[in-house]
Structure formats: C-alpha cells, structure tokens
Amino acid sequence: METSQKGGTQSPKPFRRILFANCPADGHFNPLIPLAEFLKQQGHDVRWYSSRLYADKISRMGIPHYPFKKALEFDTHDWEGSFPERSKHKSQVGKLRFDLEHVFIRRGPEYFEDIRDLHQEFPFDVLVAEISFTGIAFIRHLMHKPVIAVGIFPNIASSRDLPPYGLGMRPASGFLGRKKQDLLRFLTDKLVFGKQNELNRQILRSWGIEAPGHLNLFDLQTQHASVVLQNGTPGFEYTRSDLSPNLVFAGPLLPLVKKVREDLPLQEKLRKYKNVILVTQGTAEQNTEKILAPTLEAFKDSTWLVVATTGGAGTEALRARYPQENFLIEDYIPFDQIMPNADVYVSNGGFGGVLQAISHQLPMVVAGVHEGKNEICARVGYFKLGLDLKTETPKPAQIRAAVEQVLQDPQYRHKVQALSAEFRQYNPQQLCEHWVQRLTGGRRAAAPAPQSAGGQLLSLTLN
C-alpha cells in the first residue's frame, strides 16, 4: 500500500490522489485553498483542475494545475468581455437566468470531458469540488469516482421549511407564511428558473444520469455528491427538518496561513483612535460607491478610525477623495491582522469575510443583495450577529446609525461571541481528510464529535 512520508518517518495513513476543481470565480476558488493546502501537507498527491485565471495561485501552493481545455474559459470580473450577450438582459433575474445556463449548466459536460482526459495522466481517487461545479454528477456516475462537494454558500438545497434560496427571505413561522414559502418555491423552480432547471435535467439524462423532475439545479448538485461538506456551522443556518442526509457541517473554511503586512502604518493609527471600523466590499464588486465611499463619507473627520480594503478597486481615487487622517485605505490588508483590533465590520456580505468576522467575534453591518449576498446578509440579521440594511446601496447616514446601534447594543457582540465559540469546535481540514479516507476505502481518520444540525443529531464518529 502507498503511504505518505512525513518528517522522515513512514505513516500508515494511505496516500491518496486528490483532484480539486472549481467554477472560475474567486468566491468558488478561495474556500478550497485551506483544504488543498492541508491535504498536501499530509502527504497526499493533490492537483487542481481550474481556469487559467488561477494558475499562478495554484502554482504558488506547489500544486500541479490542469487548465480548462474543452471547458469554456471566462472571467467573472469581466462579464462583458466573457459573455457579450449577457448585457442584453437588463434585469437581475434575466442575468441570473443567463448565468445559470451559461456559467453553470452548459459547462458540466465540458468539465467531464476534460477530467476524463486528464485522468489518463492523473488517475485520481477522489474529486473535491465546490458545490456549483457542474461536473460533479458526471464524475460520480460516469467515472464512478467519489465526490466531496464543498458548500461555499449557505446551504443552497431546497427545504419544505424555508423560502426558495436567493430571495434573502427569513423563514416564516405561521401557517400563512409557510404556505407563501411553498408557493414561492414552486414559482421559482417551475416558472422563474423553470427553463434552466429543465435544461439541466435534460443534459444529465442525455448522459444517462438520473435527474428527477422535482429537483432543481442545486438540489441535484447536492444529491449527486457523495458527501457535502458545508462551509460554516449549524449556528449560521436556518433550522430545517429535511436536511440532506449527505450534508455535514464542516466548520468555517478560513485561511490556514495568517499573513501580515509590515509596511502599513497600522499600529500608529490604532494608538490614536479608540474605535475601529473595518470596511470592504470584496474583490468582485468594483463599484466603490456601494459600500466603501458611503462608509468613508459617514465617518470622515470623526473620532473613528476607518480601515478600508478595496480589493484593488479605485484605491487611489478614494485616497484622493478622502484624505482624512482617520482613514487608512489599502488594496489589501490581511483580515487576521486587522480584525482583532476592529470593533465592527461593514461589508456587502461576502461569505468568506462574514465567516472571518464571526471567528474574530466581530459584530457586523451588512448591505448586499446581488450574487446571493442577500442570503448571507439575511442570516447575519436573523441570528443577531449584526444589522442587515437590506439594500445594495446604503446611504452614509444609514451606515453610521447602524454602526452606532451595533456597538451600543451588547446583544450583537454576545451573539457573535457564542457563534465564534461554536466555530472553534470544528476542524474542516481534518474532516475533509476523514472523508477522503472514508470514501476511498482507506484507514479513516478520527472525525469530530457529534454536532447538532437542523434540530437533529448527526453522528460523525464513523469507524
């Protein structure tokens, strides 16, 4: 039996060939990084199938990269260049329909054909892919390989207890509210996205893969995975009585390597100000007028230190527009460096940033609607981890009032502290290795202690 080598001594833990894969978007790639790095450190042969956009990042991890060949290359930072016809769809619903078809559904067979070809060079034992990677069903059923899907959004599968995913609605409790949820799920799956869901089922069936008519795209993605490792914990998910039996909460997928920028005047700034606000709108959102500018406007010339990280969007222009002493505006600041010193986190609700804020016990003000951020923001508000402004474009006065409320009301910090403690009970990297070994017939690493999810107890102490 092949074994891994660590520290010059032989470990009895079986060595596995593991292929990672993702749809080409930062929010789909980044959550997989800590899993891939950990598995590589454990001595497994880890390789990555992804867009050329991520070739450099994969190379810096010391992981071999297999680029798309038959699969369409596109850049979600440049929608117009990648999909000129997308601009014909003026509404957000129209754009989402287009994305479901062209970004996800039609790519599945292409991913499969690429992976089938690379398998000749790298006969991997298991695929680890984020949940929207539409090659999952093909690899599982046509190549007969186990697939570990990683839930990079809040649990996206449908539930009889919840409104349809994507509307940013909180769960209803009364009879009429639940009936409304039932109707909305039907309308969303059969009418709003009916053509896209049917196209997905037709493509799967044409390859001989089962696709029941009542399951939408992401229900099928969940069903076809061997196991879904859900990013996060039960405390950041709505209770559901029909939690998928193959879904396991993994804990938060946070960066393994804690980075520090030595060139920042951060400590000097921190000594001058009592309260610190961290604001960002991630790397995908390029319009700085949505979150960054109104937050800076709200606190210019105040006694608050505002640390703004732009992701490279309009940094110099913001510095010129807001030269105030109480501002630090940078392309990038490692969250592990600034979050322990911050008092509140203002963002558009990117999942990774929200999970990092929770891990650092940092209450939030969130304002995001598109790209599924309304679902994350709704959970922040529902679980009282902060305030959800329920808009894509908050006004400076709204942001300031929300920040002040979050800091004055101790319930938000207490709630986020409790969830942070729950986060610390999980080890996503070890859990992923456990499932790699379990699904490939190797010696099974110890799994975490039992956890509660959806009102039920899921025992993960598998032998």
Automatic annotation (TrEMBL):
<protein>
    <submittedName>
        <fullName>Glycosyl transferase</fullName>
    </submittedName>
</protein>
<dbReference type="GO" id="GO:0008194">
    <property type="term" value="F:UDP-glycosyltransferase activity"/>
</dbReference>
<dbReference type="Pfam" id="PF06722">
    <property type="entry name" value="EryCIII-like_C"/>
</dbReference>
<feature type="domain" description="Erythromycin biosynthesis protein CIII-like C-terminal">
    <location>
        <begin position="326"/>
        <end position="423"/>
    </location>
</feature>
<dbReference type="GO" id="GO:0016758">
    <property type="term" value="F:hexosyltransferase activity"/>
</dbReference>
<keyword id="KW-0808">Transferase</keyword>
<dbReference type="InterPro" id="IPR010610">
    <property type="entry name" value="EryCIII-like_C"/>
</dbReference>
<dbReference type="InterPro" id="IPR002213">
    <property type="entry name" value="UDP_glucos_trans"/>
</dbReference>
